[in-house]
């Protein structure tokens, strides 16, 4: 109320009607205190941070498309960078994109990255809301089909998770991240090129942004040991996540299906 009256006094809205006269001298400020409210009409509800994945963005595209021209991957591209967001606006202003067209990964990556030689971070989300950064690697390849290859040189000490193989200085981890795929493999090689094992992470569809690859880890992993043995692990962690309400059962079934297919393929 005090702030409103201060503004009224500053703008000269003090005629008997209680409102400025519309001549431009005032700003439409009510001068009659009885017409002012001491409390807002409504208060916002508490907010939460929500991690939108690739499937969620696609759903938002579908909803937006019912009202206006929307290119494939509209929300996905806009989430990448400010320049990419402006590019989407320009593309949609110039043409009417086909709703069933494929996401133009090659065009987007060529314009905004990542490109060979770039640094790319791996953002490893968890169903309970945590975000773990698995480090940063160098992009060694970008394919038009949406596959980005990243290499990281490892430090010595400890063992590779699940593989039980010693981690030695000079080892290289090669990770293949494909846009939209429900899994990605990391192959560990020694300094001499010897394969020390492959670890396949089952996750929500991968998104490869200019500076980071993002996904939510869905607990179950499939490994191929140096001797060729294939092992599937962490199904119990998935079950616990379902019980805790962090992972819907329908999504858990998708995870199990993907993991079974990987077991057979490896």
TrEMBL record:
User: Matching Pfam families, A to Z?
Assistant: DUF402
Highest taxon, organism lineage: Archaea
Q: Which residues form the DUF402 domain?
A: 128-265
Q: Name one GO molecular function term.
A: hydrolase activity
Q: Which UniProt keywords apply?
A: Hydrolase
Renumbered to this chain, the Acidic residues biased-composition regions fall at 13-23
UniProt-annotated stretches for the region Disordered: 1-26
Q: What is this protein called?
A: RNA-binding protein
> What organism is the protein native to?
Halorubrum ezzemoulense
């Amino acid at each position: 109320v005090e702030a409103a009256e201060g503004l009224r006094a500053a703008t000269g809205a003090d005629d008997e009607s209680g409102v400025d006269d519309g001549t431009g001298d005032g700003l439409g400020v009510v001068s009659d205190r009885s017409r002012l409210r001491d409390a807002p009409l409504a208060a916002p509800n508490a907010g939460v941070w929500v991690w939108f994945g690739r499937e969620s963005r696609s759903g938002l595209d579908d909803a937006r498309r019912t009202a206006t021209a929307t290119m494939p991957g509209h929300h996905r591209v806009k989430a990448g960078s400010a320049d990419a967001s402006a590019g989407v606006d320009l593309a949609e202003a110039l043409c009417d994109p086909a709703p069933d067209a494929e996401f133009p990964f090659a065009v987007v990556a060529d314009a905004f990255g990542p490109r060979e030689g770039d640094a790319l971070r791996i953002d490893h989300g968890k169903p309970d809301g945590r975000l773990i950064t698995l480090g940063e690697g160098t992009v060694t390849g970008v394919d038009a089909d949406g596959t980005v290859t990243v290499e990281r040189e490892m430090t010595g000490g400890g063992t590779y998770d699940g593989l039980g193989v010693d981690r030695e200085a000079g080892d290289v981890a090669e990770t293949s991240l494909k846009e939209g795929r429900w899994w990605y493999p990391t192959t560990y090689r020694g300094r001499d090129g010897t394969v020390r094992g492959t670890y396949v992470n089952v996750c929500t569809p991968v998104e490869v942004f200019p500076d980071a690859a993002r996904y939510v880890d869905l607990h179950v992993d499939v490994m191929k040991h140096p001797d060729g043995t294939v092992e599937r692990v962490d199904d119990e962690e998935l079950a616990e996540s379902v019980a805790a309400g962090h992972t819907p059962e329908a999504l858990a079934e998708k995870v199990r299906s993907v993991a079974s297919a990987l077991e057979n393929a490896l």
